[in-house]
């Protein structure tokens, strides 16, 4: 399903992707063309309650796009340290909160050869290159599981030759960094939902896949 022919309205977007995936053009388009406030989540997670910073971000009023790493912790934690600092129960609770805020996860993907070339060009270690297949599989599994709690939009990069996926910069110019807002203090609670927030459908250079979402209303959550 092409983004140019699909209108997706969400008040909150949690944007993630494995190492080597470019998210800046997507985030820039969300901020410049659709008015999203873009913020980057801190990689330093609290020991006792690692999801707390993410929950606090959801208290921001208005359209919010988070350059996140919570799913990345679920994937790379076991790959690199043998365990994740975020439990699946905590991830499910956060996904439920995202859904309640009319939000969705955005899974940004790219072909494995593209990821390999980017990581090699950036000087990644042999170990990082060797884990690409496992990381891609891990993200697919994680988002399929989280889709039981919140909508998941899968956006596949289609980089244009010499220009990048964002068509707004002039010919030959690189896409600018997304304007990032830092929330250094606790944000006010949400007063009411904002309808008809922003449309991903106009963002070029990507394909969109909708993962069906069946909200859970009762029973114990399943841990994969």
Q: How would you sum up this structure, described in words?
A:
The chain is α/β, with parallel strands linked by helices. About 30% of the residues lie in helices and about 15% in strands. It contains seven helices and eight strands, in the order ββαβαβααβαααβββ. The strands form two sheets. A six-stranded mixed sheet has the order 3-4-2-5-6-8, with helices on both faces. A two-stranded antiparallel ribbon has the order 1-7. Helix 2 links the parallel strand 3 and strand 4. The protein starts with 8 loop residues before the first strand and ends in a 13-residue tail after the last strand. About 35% of the residues are buried.
Labels describing this entry:
224 residues, alpha/beta, 6-stranded mixed β-sheet, two-stranded antiparallel ribbon, 8 strands, 32% helix, globular, disordered N terminus
Strand order of the largest sheet: 3-4-2-5-6-8
> Rg, please?
17 Å
Strand-pairing-aware structural class: alpha/beta
Residue-averaged pLDDT, rounded?
76
Following the backbone from N to C, one meets helices and strands in this order, namely EEHEHEHHEHHHEEE
Q: Helicity range of the residues?
A: 25-40%
Per DSSP, what share of the residues sits in E-state strands of 2 or more residues? Answer: 15-25%
Major sheet: size, sense and barrel closure? 6 strands, mixed
Globally, the shape reads globular
């Amino acid at each position: 399903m092409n983004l140019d022919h699909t209108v997706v309205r969400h008040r909150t977007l949690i944007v993630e992707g494995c190492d080597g995936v470019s998210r800046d053009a997507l985030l820039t388009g969300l901020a410049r063309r659709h008015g999203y406030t873009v913020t980057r989540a801190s990689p330093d997670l609290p020991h006792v309650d690692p999801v707390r910073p993410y929950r606090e971000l959801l208290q921001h009023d208005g359209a919010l796009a988070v350059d996140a790493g919570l799913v990345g912790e679920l994937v790379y934690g076991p790959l690199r340290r043998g365990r994740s600092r975020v439990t699946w129960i905590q991830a499910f609770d956060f996904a439920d909160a995202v859904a309640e805020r009319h939000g969705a996860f955005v899974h940004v993907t790219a072909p494995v050869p593209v990821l390999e070339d980017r990581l090699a060009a950036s000087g990644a270690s042999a170990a990082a290159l060797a884990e690409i297949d496992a990381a891609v599989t891990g993200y697919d599994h994680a988002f399929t599981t989280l889709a039981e709690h919140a909508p998941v939009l899968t956006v596949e990069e289609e980089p244009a030759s010499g220009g990048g996926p964002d068509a707004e910069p002039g010919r030959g110019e690189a896409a600018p960094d997304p304007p990032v807002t830092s929330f250094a203090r606790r944000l006010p609670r949400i007063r009411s939902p904002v309808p008809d927030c922003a449309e991903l459908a106009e963002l070029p250079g990507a394909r969109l896949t909708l993962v069906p979402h069946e909200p859970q209303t009762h029973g114990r959550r399943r841990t994969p």
